[in-house]
Amino acid sequence: MNPLTVSRVRHGQFISHAKPLLDFLVPALAHPTTRRHVTTTTSSPSAASTATPLSPPGKPSSPKRRRPLSKEQRDFLDSANPSFPHTPLLRVNQAGELAATLIYTAQTPPLLRTHPHLRSLMHHMHSQEATHFATFSRLLSHHRIRPTAMYPVWTAAASVLGWGTAMLGREAAMACTEAVETEIGGHYNGQVRVLLRWMRELEERGEEVGEEVRELVGVLKRIRDEELEHLDHAVGEDAREAKGWP
């Protein structure tokens, strides 16, 4: 059985039992409260005056403030793509990774029949796309965001695009990869820029940057870099020699 097909089936399933990458804060209402009885003693004024202060004078230890997301930030997280104003960021990203995975899955059999030397490259790119899809699937599950209802449409369109470009030849298949990865890389780059700007503004105001924002930035940077790596591979395999390439 084709290993890429197995990978697609395994990663194409919606993972609801995976360990979440991020976590919400919930009040621990179920835990009993423990009380500690402390015996206090009265000290003399002289002893109190010579006591060592807990923190240096003039340097009070105050934790950073945590401010709720602004309207701009909420709108961005609710809409990663201005063309789809009611589609959450993670849902858009997962749908894109689903399409990329299916494109490589459909391209591989025709390409390998005529260009067997591409086996390791296609396996490498498909494996990374399947990992990206699994990552966003886990995030969707954790944040209780339903996947796109357009799964059947995405599946059919991506499969036809992958198979069709592969049948046109190696150059056409790689031109498809270059075009798709250019779009996806720019998409993630825009998200990273916005999140980094938020972090900088929070730090300048002396406020705390949430850990989940830092983790999301790290995930987006890693996936963006891998997508741009695929673009470089495609150019190296003569993507720009395809007929009709602009």
Report what the structure shows:
This protein is mainly alpha-helical and 246 residues long. 62% of the residues lie in helices and 0% in strands. It has helices spanning 3-12, 45-49, 71-78, 89-114, 119-143, 151-167, 170-204, 211-236. 26% of the residues are buried.
What class, by secondary structure content? mainly alpha
User: Unreliable segments (pLDDT under 50, ≥5 consecutive)?
Assistant: 1-56, 80-87
Taken as a percent bin, the fraction of beta residues is under 5%
Shape descriptor:
elongated
User: What is the element string, with H for helices and E for strands?
Assistant: HHHHHHHH
Helix share bin? 55-70%
Determine Rg (CA atoms, Å): 26 Å
Total strands: the figure is 0
Tell me about the biggest sheet? none
What is the number of helical segments per DSSP (H or I, 4+ residues)? 8
Chain-averaged pLDDT:
74
End-to-end CA span: 38 Å
Short description:
With 246 residues, the chain is mostly helical. The protein is built from eight helices and no strands.
Can you lay out the helices and strands and say which pair or pack?
Elements: H1 3-12, H2 45-49, H3 71-78, H4 89-114, H5 119-143, H6 151-167, H7 170-204, H8 211-236
Helix pairs in contact: 1-4, 1-5, 4-5, 4-6, 4-7, 5-8, 6-7, 7-8
Task: Name the features.
single chain; 62% helix; elongated; mainly alpha; 246 residues
